[in-house]
Structures are given as C-alpha cells and as structure tokens.
C-alpha cells in the first residue's frame, strides 16, 4: 500500500468517482422522484429545526416512501400514452427518412466526382453551426404557412430529418470512404449494378455507421422540444417532451408525473442503444483486402 | 475463349499522356504477362481491358467486337485484384457465388459450379468461413475461385501475388500457371516482378512509362516470348529490365570495317547476329550490352572467343550457388559471375575476368534500339 503508484491511483479513483456522482446525481434524483409517489420536487419534508443528519438525509436521492403510483397515474389519468405514441411514430419516420437519404447522399459524396461536391459537404457543415432556435421562424414559415403541415406528423418529420441529415452524411461519408473501392470494382466486374452494390455490399459493410446515424436521428426527433412545442398546437398531437413540459407548466407543478414521464421517455432510447450496440464493432471490412 | 487486340490505344488526363500508341494483341488461350516498373501504366492497361478505366483514343477489341464502351459486366471477363477485394461480410461460398447469383443462374447450377471451383482450389473445407478467418493464401484462392467460377473468356490478374510471402508466392505462381493451362482461358497478368513474368508468361509485354526518359513513341517496349526478350532485347530498356542482375551497358565504338567493337580497353569481334548491322553502322558509337553470366573467371569458363577484363573488386555478393562480382574497369563498374566455391576475391583485389564475345548485344545510343 505504501507503493507511491497505488497512492496515485487512489486519488485518481477518488476524482473519477466524484465526477461520476456529480454526473449521476440529477438522474438519480429524477428516479427517486418518480418512485416517491408524491408531486413535490423535494423528497423529504424537513422538520422546523433540522439536525445535520436530517439535512444529509434530505439531499440523498432516496424517496421517503417507495411507490409506483406516479407511473400508474401518468399512464392512466394523463394523455401520456398518446404523446409517447406520437413521439414513437415521428421518431421512427424521421429515422427511416433521415438514414435513407443520408446513406444515398453520403454514398454519392464518397464515390462520385461531380461539380459542387466539396461545396455541398461544406454547406452541410455550415448548417450545423447555427443554433436551432435561429431556424425557428424560417422553418415555421416554410412548414406551417407555406406547406400547411402545422400540427401534423409529417411537418415535424421533415424538419427533424433535414436537421439530422448533415451530421449523418458526414458520418456516413467518412465511413464509406474507408470501404476499399476494389470491392466495388470487383462487384462491378461480377456483374452487379450500382444499386446492387449499394444494397448488397456497401450497406451491410456500413452497419456500424448506420447504427450510429440511426440512433442520432432517432434521438434528434425523440428529444426535440422547441420545434415540437411550436408546431404542434393541439394537445392530442404533443410529443413526449412537450407533454412532459405540460406537467410543470405555468398552471401545474406535478414533478412526480414529470419524473415518471421522464423515466418512461428515456427507456426506449436506452433500449435502442443497447440494441444497436452490437453493430458498433470495428473491423467489419477485415479480411477483404490483404 | 477470346483474343484481345489493342489498336492505337492511348489514355491521357488533360495534357498528360499516360498511355500512348499501344499496338499489340493477346492470342486466344494465351498467358500474357504485362511487366514493367511501377508507374509504367501496366495496371491502367489491365483496367482498360476490364472496363474500369476509360480509353481516350484507339480501339480495344475482345474477340470480334470493340469494347471501348461496353460495361465491365458485359465484357465476359473476370479479374483478380492485388488486394483480393473479397466481400468481407459474405462467407467463402457466397463470395464465389456472388457473380452467379447476380446473373440469376439456377440455384442447383450455382451450387455445382461453386463446389467444382472449391474442389479445384482446395477450398471445400472453408466454404462457410468469412474472409477474415482465412490465411493470405486461402484468400487468394477465394479470389481465384470467384474468377474461374464464372467461366469467363478472359482472366485479368493485377499483381495477385504481391501480398503473399516468398514461399507462398512461388507456390501460387505454379498453381495459377497450372490452372490457366488446364482451363486454357486467355489471361492477362500484371506484375512488376520480372521473375514472375519469365516463369509464368507464354509471352511477355514489357511496358515503360511514357515520360521524357522514354525515347520511344509508345509504352510498349517489346512483346515476345520470355527467351525472346532475354536473348534478343529490342532496346536498352528491355535489356536492362529483364534478367538479374541487370545487363551491363557500356559505351563502345565500332571499327572502320564494322567487324569489331572496341570498349573497356580492348577490341572484340562482332558476333554473327550483328555482322550486317555492324557493317552498316561502321565507325559509329554504339552501346554494348553484356549479361553478368557472360563475364566469368578465366579458369571457370570455356568460351571460344573471350576478351579479358582487368579491374578492381568493389563488392562480392554471395548467393550460395554463385557469387556476383562487381568490379571496376576504368570508369565503369562491371558485374560478373563466379562459382562461389572457388576462392573468392575480396574488395580491393585486382581480378581478371573473361567476357564472352559471342554474347555481346549492340544498341544505337540515340534511339536505344537494338542494331539490326
């Protein structure tokens, strides 16, 4: 134990643990809140003159009583199921549309030489540099006023897909660039058309990158709040994040429902991430060349 | 079965001509090797045959049609890439079957043909493995299998053995040669290794880059059988490129009657094959070429007409069965050959070597062409 190296490790680990606690604390608080069965932000009511131990107990993310009533009520007495369903549809459509368009675009950017190729990639990058709220008004004019897609799934899907595509294209292009062109030429001589090569050679090899971009597209749509709150006017069309805000808006402060809702909302993302993780492996092209 | 013919083929990027004035052919069923240093355009020419590279000028014939604008898949060719270019997400069976599936052959037919190819190449135990679970030699065989299973009329090989280790390379060299003889398919094989070219090719096309150092109006330096290239190189480039160690090339002058040539401090009679050409060029400067195996120690060789060369040893390379001797004659470094089991000279020693006069090659110093 006197080994100076071990000592260094202790400090290192203490540091890392404290940062981990710092990062997890809010999440744990929300978890505790959701299982507390009450609606206030605090977990424990402090007595008039609290002792140190009571104060310490109050900041621990543990509910006074364990209960699942928040989950049950959020599901049965609120429209939360409906909002969640809206989010699922919109996010899945966004993922499908976004990933499909990003794949085809990235393949073209990676493999073909055409005028505007580098400018196009640059424009994608530039579009990422503006804050989303800046786009609110122009997007509102285009989607709601001109296309009259306000308060519809399609309106949000179009906006989400277009905002996620630039990142996805960069991501996928970078990956396609690493797939040796020899493989495609070989397939070309084997008699495959460009489309066949794209579907049967390139896409299977790009699974890791597609998994990442799918996750990204899904989360773009799943977590987005501002655009959804502006575009979706009727309560029935709210997405989950807008719905969550509804619990703690100007007229109500149902923090228990909010916490339970948040936990429910985060579950699909966690599940999706675990599901896609199996594709996040390197070396899919191993063995092809050399 | 098909022959290939290049008719004034050229390719340029902007103002840069990289392939110029190619005029030659590959016969039906022939094993033709393209050989040349890197950058000579040999792979580009191969890719032109494959249809992966456009042709700027001239006509390329495969069989009885011009294929300049024919899609690769319609040229009835198969190609083996240097990098193998296997489909990493498919197992060996699917890799070999891919081309047949694309062409929508009946399943039973595909199975039979893949099985036949796998048997031929010794791959039948590996059919359900992914490429990454195979050794380099096995991957190479899968690439071969993918080519032969389609039974194409032309095989194209782009330096297929350069990623293998030396032992495997020799083995695969023999296997590919055997396979080609057995299938009797027209084959074009690209390599930078002249040993590969000499051992595999029925005919060899020696290519050189089309740059300032190339005095000829084409990339094609010479096309002929291996021994043709070795015994009668058309120009200095081929003379230097074919054969290890390289041919010695020195300046020389023909005598006034053209019967002898003087160089390296002596005078040598011109060999029979150059008699007429030397008379026509009498009194002129020439380039004299002599292969290292035609310079030997006096007690080790028994040649009718020799010229004795005296010089200082620069370096001795011992190869086991023989030794390569580098020695200086005047300004010129000459390379000769010794049997390694005799007493070998050391650097700095003075040696006397014999040059075989009958084996001299003569070239024009201006055009670098063989005198004829």
Number of helices of chain A: 13
Q: Give me the Rg of chain B, rounded.
A: 24 Å
Radius of gyration of chain A, rounded? 24 Å
Main β sheet profile of chain A: none
Oligomer: heterodimer
Order of helices and strands of chain B: EEEHEEEHHHEHEHEEHHEEEHEEEEEEE
Mean pLDDT of chain A: 86
Total strand segments of chain A: 0
Distance between the termini of chain B: 37 Å
| Percent of residues in beta strands of chain A | under 5%
Q: Counting H and I runs of at least 4 residues, what is the number of helices of chain B?
A: 9
Q: Report, as a whole number of angstroms, the end-to-end distance of chain A.
A: 49 Å
Structural class of chain A: mainly alpha
Poorly predicted runs of chain B are none
The CATH homologous superfamily of chain A is called MetI-like
Uncertain residue ranges of chain A: none
Most extensive contact = A-B, 23 and 31 residues
Shape of chain A: globular
Number of domain units of chain A:
1
Average the pLDDT over all residues of chain B and give the rounded result: 89
Question: What does the model show?
Answer:
The complex is a heterodimer of chains A (290) and B (372). By secondary structure, chain A is mainly alpha-helical. Chain A has helices spanning 4-34, 52-59, 69-76, 80-111, 117-127, 136-146, 153-178, 181-189, 194-205, 207-223, 226-231, 240-247, 255-277. Chain A has a single domain (71-289), classed as MetI-like fold. The longest helix of chain A has 32 residues, at 80-111. The mean pLDDT of chain A is 86. In chain B, the strands form four sheets. Chain B has a six-stranded mixed β-sheet with strand order 6-7-8-3-9-10, with helices on both faces. Chain B has a five-stranded antiparallel β-sheet with strand order 13-12-11-14-20. Chain B has helices spanning 42-50, 92-102, 107-121, 136-148, 166-183, 194-200, 226-231, 236-241, 275-280; strands spanning 4-13, 16-26, 31-35, 57-62, 65-66, 77-80, 154-158, 186-191, 203-207, 220-224, 248-254, 260-263, 266-269, 285-290, 295-296, 306-318, 322-329, 332-339, 350-356, 361-363. Chain B has nine helices and 20 strands. With 372 residues, chain B is an alpha+beta fold. Helices cover 24% and strands 33% of the residues of chain B. Chain B starts with a strand and ends in a 9-residue tail after the last strand. Chains A and B meet through helix 8 and helix 9 of A and strand 6, helix 2 and helix 4 of B.
């Amino acid at each position: 134990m006197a080994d100076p190296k071990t000592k260094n490790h202790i400090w290192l680990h203490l540091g890392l643990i404290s940062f981990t606690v710092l990062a997890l604390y809010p999440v744990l608080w929300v978890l505790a809140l959701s299982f507390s069965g009450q609606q206030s932000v605090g977990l424990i009511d402090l007595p008039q003159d609290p002792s140190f131990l009571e104060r310490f107990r109050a900041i621990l993310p543990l509910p006074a009583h364990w209960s699942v009533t928040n989950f049950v009520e959020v599901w049965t007495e609120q429209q939360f199921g409906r909002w969640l369903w809206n989010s699922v549809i919109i996010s899945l459509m966004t993922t499908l549309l976004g990933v499909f368009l990003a794949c085809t675009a990235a393949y073209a950017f990676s493999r073909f030489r055409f005028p505007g190729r580098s400018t196009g990639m640059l424009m994608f990058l530039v579009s990422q540099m503006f804050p989303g709220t800046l786009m609110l008004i122009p997007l509102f004019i285009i989607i709601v006023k001109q296309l009259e897609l306000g308060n519809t799934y399609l309106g949000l899907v179009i906006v989400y897909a277009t905002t996620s595509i630039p990142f996805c294209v960069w991501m996928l292009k970078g990956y396609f660039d690493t797939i040796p062109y020899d493989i495609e030429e070989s397939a070309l001589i084997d008699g495959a058309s460009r489309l066949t090569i794209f579907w049967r050679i390139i896409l299977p090899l790009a699974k890791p990158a597609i998994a990442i971009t799918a996750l990204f597209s899904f989360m773009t749509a799943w977590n987005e709040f501002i655009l959804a709150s502006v575009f979706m006017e009727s309560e029935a069309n709210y997405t989950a994040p807008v719905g969550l805000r509804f619990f703690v808006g100007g007229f109500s402060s149902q923090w228990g429902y909010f916490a339970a809702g948040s936990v429910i909302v985060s579950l699909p993302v966690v599940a999706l991430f675990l599901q896609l993780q199996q594709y996040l492996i390197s070396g899919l092209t191993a063995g092809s060349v050399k | 079965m098909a022959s290939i013919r290049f008719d004034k083929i050229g390719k340029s990027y902007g103002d840069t001509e990289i392939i110029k004035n190619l005029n030659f052919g590959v016969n039906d069923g022939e094993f033709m090797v393209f050989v040349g240093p890197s950058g000579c355009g040999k792979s580009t020419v191969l890719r032109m045959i494959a249809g992966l590279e456009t042709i700027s000028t001239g006509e390329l014939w495969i069989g009885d049609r011009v294929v300049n604008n024919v899609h690769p898949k319609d040229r009835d060719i198969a190609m083996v890439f240097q990098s193998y270019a296997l489909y990493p997400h498919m197992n060996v069976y699917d890799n070999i079957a891919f081309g047949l599936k694309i062409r929508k052959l009946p399943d039973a037919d595909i199975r039979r043909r893949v099985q036949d190819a796998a048997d031929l190449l010794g791959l039948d135990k590996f059919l359900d493995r992914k490429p990454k679970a195979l050794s380099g030699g096995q991957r190479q065989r899968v690439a071969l299998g993918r080519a032969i299973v389609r039974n194409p009329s032309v095989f194209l090989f782009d330096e297929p053995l350069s990623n293998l280790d030396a032992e495997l390379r020799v083995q695969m060299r023999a296997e590919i040669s055997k396979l080609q003889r057995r299938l009797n398919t027209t084959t074009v094989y690209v390599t930078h290794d002249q040993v590969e070219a000499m051992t595999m090719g029925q005919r060899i096309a020696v290519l050189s880059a089309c740059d300032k150092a190339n005095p000829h109006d084409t990339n094609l330096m010479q096309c002929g059988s291996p021994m043709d290239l070795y015994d009668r190189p058309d120009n200095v480039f081929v003379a230097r490129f074919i054969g290890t160690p390289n041919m010695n090339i020195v300046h020389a002058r023909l005598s006034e009657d053209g019967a002898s040539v003087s160089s390296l401090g002596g005078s040598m009679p011109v060999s029979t094959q150059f008699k007429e050409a030397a008379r026509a060029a009498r009194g002129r400067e020439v380039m004299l070429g002599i292969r290292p195996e035609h310079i030997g120690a006096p007690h080790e060789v028994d040649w009718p007409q020799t010229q004795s060369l005296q010089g200082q040893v620069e370096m001795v390379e011992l190869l086991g069965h023989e030794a390569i001797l580098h020695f200086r004659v005047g300004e010129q470094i000459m390379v000769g050959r010794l049997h390694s089991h005799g007493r070998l000279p050391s650097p700095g020693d003075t040696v006397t070597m014999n040059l075989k006069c009958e084996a001299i090659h003569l070239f024009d110093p201006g055009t670098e062409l063989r005198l004829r």
